[in-house]
Write a structure and sequence with these properties.
The chain is of the alpha/beta class. It folds into two domains: 355 residues, ATPase, nucleotide binding domain (Nucleotidyltransferase, domain 5), CATH 3.30.420.40; 200 residues, Alpha-Beta Complex (DHBP synthase), CATH 3.90.870. 40% of the residues lie in helices and 20% in strands. The chain contains 20 helices and 22 strands. Strand 21 and strand 22 form a beta hairpin. The relative contact order is 0.12.
């Protein structure tokens, strides 16, 4: 019997876990084509039901119950409007409106008294959820899991560690902005919780807004921009949030909570003094320092040196690189869907362990949890598009070898669609755009024809595990999920220059044997060029979710400057208009 996890806020999604093993997981955006979609994930739940059947779903785990959850379920339009503001799809609020919203946020930000908010969220919010689930034939017991407990569970149960220190940090959820827990033989014990009124995640997000970037989606751009600055310290950041080692608490002198008002505060007090690149650098380094203070203190106190992390702040691969390289850490794991989009899986993991007591003891090896399509289904869609004169295609005996030759011998940019869709924000070789990593012009070409990223934002790489040590140093451990930055060995930088950053780092997927078809493609590239790596970025147009279906892949081909697509056993070329 499986546990169904459902997250119904921004980046909504669902996951199925049974006896410590993930069966399937997907986020609603892949169905609706609205990036980081908000609300009850009807389509994601329907897909998961199709994987096991209603009768095999035992309980439903919900990773969000506090004040904001209650308001969002009572008035779902508010959450949609908030997300639109983050994405700059709505008019920016006036200063007066920001101030009024900040007052409202401060009244409920720490959600005290917590028993009251929990009662309201689980009873009123739970009633709303139950009615929606009943319409889908899912009258089941709801198990509510606190936001940061779900984050912690996602990191701990996926890590494979029996004993681990578990750190979560994000903007805020259920009244807190982060937590430290101890995982021991399947059980999680909380050691510290940080009030939502002081948040490293909120600081980073507000700094992103202050630089005229999108709050939730563009934090990676701020991280990338930091590499373009000379070193700069910004002591004023201590007033916004800092870690107090005596109190074991994040504290704030400004007391500002609402992300837009905090962004205006940063503009007024910091951006007039520091340029945009210097602000990005200062915020990046400052947050790194605060995270390291937390980790070092709890490693010293507990003696536990395995570290697992989750929460939106850990989408920052440079912070993760710092932790990965730390001599204080014996082993390190970042939950790959670290933001709120991964909460459904965390809640399902925890409820499953509580129900069945099964701890896998093995780290997850891949994230291929989504829909897949047969060659028959793919060919049907291809023929429809071919009849409209949009494409031509051929069936190929060895699609990996054929695509590798196109990439390595002819330096083509190829859209790559195979197998089950990846779970989370990274393309890991099943829904990818691939190109040679040693041609710096490929980065510019992909930016122009598909991505339209700013100049300072790099692309990622996939490197065969047996070639990683000769390209990356230090190399403490492999990373399968593009969640950690690595420094590139200077002598090999030109081999992956198109998939690296100005600071000589890359965000690699270290590929083992978990995806044999993708592995065979890169092995063929290595045979032709001597380079066991490719540039790998997600198969989607800028602003759209990663492609899920053959239709999505063809839409991307036809609505961008891309020309070639390897999908199933078929190689597709777009006809010139």
């Amino acid at each position: 019997m499986a546990i169904l996890g459902i997250h119904d806020a921004h980046d909504a999604g669902a996951a199925l876990v049974e006896k410590g093993k993930v069966i399937s997981a997907v986020n609603e955006e892949r169905f609706t084509k609205r990036k980081n979609d908000v609300g009850f994930p009807v389509n994601a739940v329907k897909f998961l039901i199709s994987q096991v059947g209603r009768e095999d779903i035992e309980k439903i785990a919900i990773p969000w119950y506090g004040g904001s959850a209650l308001f969002a379920r009572l008035m779902p339009g508010l959450e949609v409007k908030r997300r639109d503001l983050w994405r700059k799809a709505a008019k920016k609020p006036s200063r007066m409106r920001m101030h009024l919203q900040n007052i409202a946020f401060r009244l409920v930000q720490d959600q005290n008294p917590k028993p009251f908010w929990k009662f309201m969220g689980t009873h009123i919010g739970g009633s709303i959820l139950s009615r929606k689930l009943e319409k889908m034939g899912l009258s089941r017991k709801l198990v509510f899991v606190e936001h940061h407990v779900a984050h912690a569970a996602s990191a701990y149960y996926a890590s494979g560690f029996k004993e681990a220190l578990v750190l979560t940090l994000d903007g805020a959820g259920d009244g807190i902005s982060g937590s430290v827990s101890l995982g021991d033989n399947g059980k999680l014990e909380r050691l510290a919780a940080f009030n939502a009124s002081a948040s490293l995640g909120l600081l980073y997000g507000a700094a992103t807004l202050a630089c005229d970037l999108k709050y939730s989606e563009d934090k990676g751009k701020l991280m990338s921009l930091a590499a373009y600055s000379y070193p700069e310290q910004i002591p004023e950041l201590e007033q916004i949030v800092r870690y107090d080692e005596k109190k074991k608490q994040l504290v704030s002198s400004t007391g500002i909570k609402y992300e837009f008002e905090l962004a205006e505060y940063i503009k007024d007090h910091l951006l007039w003094k520091y340029n945009r690149e210097a602000l990005a650098y200062g915020v990046q380094r400052y947050v790194e320092e605060q995270v390291m203070k937390i980790v070092n203190q709890f490693v010293e106190e507990t003696g536990v040196r395995n570290l697992a992390v989750a929460g939106g702040l850990f989408s920052n691969v440079i912070i993760n690189m710092m932790l990965n390289e730390s001599p204080e850490i014996k082993d390190f794991f970042v939950f790959p869907h670290m933001g709120d989009g991964g909460l459904a899986m965390g809640a399902a993991y925890l409820a499953d362990f509580q129900e069945h007591g099964k701890l896998s003891g093995r780290q997850i090896s891949d994230l291929y949890y989504g829909p897949e399509y047969s060659n028959i289904e793919i060919e049907k869609v291809l023929r429809q598009h071919a009849r409209r004169g949009l494409i031509e295609f051929n069936e190929v005996e060895d699609i990996a070898a054929y695509a590798a030759e196109e990439i390595a011998e002819h330096n083509k940019i190829v859209l790559w669609f195979q197998g089950r869709m990846e779970y989370g924000p990274r393309a890991l070789g099943n829904r990818s755009v691939l190109a040679m990593s040693n041609d710096p012009e490929n980065r510019n070409k992909i930016n122009i024809i598909i991505k339209r990223r700013p100049y300072y934002q790099p692309f990622a790489s996939t490197i065969l595990e047996e070639n990683a040590k000769e390209m990356l140093a230090p190399y403490p451990r492999p990373n399968r999920f593009m969640t950690v930055g690595y420094k590139v060995i200077p002598e090999r930088f030109n081999d992956i220059v198109a998939a690296s950053h100005i600071d000589k780092t890359t965000r690699p997927q270290i590929l083992g044997k978990e995806n044999e078809l993708y592995r065979s493609l890169i092995a063929k590239v290595r045979k032709i060029t001597g380079i066991g790596a490719v540039l790998n970025t997600s198969l989607n147009k800028h602003g759209m979710p990663i492609a899920m279906s053959p239709e999505d892949a063809l839409w991307t081909l036809e609505n961008t400057g891309a020309k070639y697509l390897a999908i199933g056993n078929f190689y597709v070329e777009k006809k010139e208009k």
